[in-house]
Amino acid sequence: MEWTELKFAVKTEHTDLAAAIANMVSDGGIMIEDYSDMEQTLESMGWQGYISDQLLNKDRSVSVIHIFLPPDSDPDGAQEFIQQKLEASGVEAAFSRDISEDQDWATAWKRFYHPFKVGEKLAVRPSWEPYSPAPGEVVLTLDPGMAFGTGEHETTYLCLQQLERLVQPGWRVLDMGCGSGILSIAALLLGAAGATGVDIDPVAVRTARENACLNGIDPSRYRLLTGNASSDEGVRREIGGGYQLITANIVADVLIAQAGLYLDCLAPGGLLVASGIIGERALEVQRALEEAGFLLQQRLEKRSWVALRMKKPE
Q1: d(CA 311, CA 314)
Q2: Which of 76, 136, 148, 279 registers the highest number of CB atoms within 10 A of its CB?
Q3: Boundaries of CATH 3.40.50.150 in the chain?
Q4: CATH 3.30.70.120 domain extents, the chain
Q5: How would you list the strands of the sheet with 2-11, edge to edge?
Q6: Cβ pair 185, 205 in contact under 8 A
């Protein structure tokens, strides 16, 4: 069967708006090409000399949104809808289309996903790409499949940076909304004694388990749970407590709803890294966490996204 890849380019300052509109019509997911901060990112990683001219020559002033539409969809209608929404917001866009077979669509996103470093010692590499680690480097091998979490999105990247700085040997880590498992697996590779990953999506849980195997994680150190911790008392009981660190890379509404749960799950003095927060809602999430009993340690920002590092009182 043939899928339609609908692409449209906008100025980089409109990327978040364009992506939000694209998600309204996409059942097959979206990809975003945005090279606007590539030089700063490469400089922070010390990789300036390791990137091809093809990438360096990419236009930094525009972002390209890729939408994958299934065979029974209406590409004309999807394009018209997006165009109207953008025009109503005063945003210009240039559209184009490609046709992809099923097997092409299933792996098309892989051409945009390459090894990258986080902080000083953690590197993330796709399972299909070779990578030669530097001495002392911790390499996380990942095949995200259909689950969220490649590490490149700002929200996940902020969490990975915190994990590298915070995780201590012997810690137990809870990963709420684990997606591909990238955060909980990173915590284990960085020295955590054990981790629990929780996700409402069974596909994500299966992907996290597969990624744990890719990284040689002992199953006795990694527990995965499927279910909604907000509404399922059984899931909450299974999660338990006494964790030294929780990562919750979800969305603002869920972070607010689960604020009390996070506090209950942490040991005294434990830390919460709450991410997935668009900048406009950061203060609202912070206040909800503080009302639950948390103390703010640090607000972290990358582009328009925010992560909050919170502490449970001793």
Answers
A1: 9
A2: 148
A3: 148-311
A4: 2-107
A5: 30-34, 62-69, 2-11, 94-101
A6: no
Question: What confidence tens digit (pLDDT) does each residue in 116-172 have?
Answer: 888 788 998 888 888 888 898 999 998 866 545 555 678 888 999 999 999 999 999
pLDDT tens-digit series, residues 172-231: 999 999 988 999 999 999 999 999 999 988 888 998 999 999 999 999 999 999 999 999
Section 104-112 average pLDDT: 57
**Tokens encoding 264:** 């209950």
Pairwise CA distance, residues 45 & 108, whole Å:
26
Nearest to 93 by CA among 53, 122, 65: 65
- Structure tokens belonging to residue 250: 């979800």
Joined together, the tokens standing for residue 107 give 């792996």
C-beta neighbour count of 94 within 10 angstroms = 10
> What b/e string do you get for 103-133 counting C-beta neighbours within 10 Å, with b at 16 or more?
eebeebeeeebebbbbbeebbbbbeeeeeee
Pick one of 3.40.50.2300, 1.10.290.10, 3.40.50.150, 3.30.43.10 as the CATH number of 148-311: 3.40.50.150
pTM greater than the 0.70 cutoff:
no
- Give the β-pairing of 94-101 and 305-311: unpaired
The dotted CATH code for 2-107 is 3.30.70.120
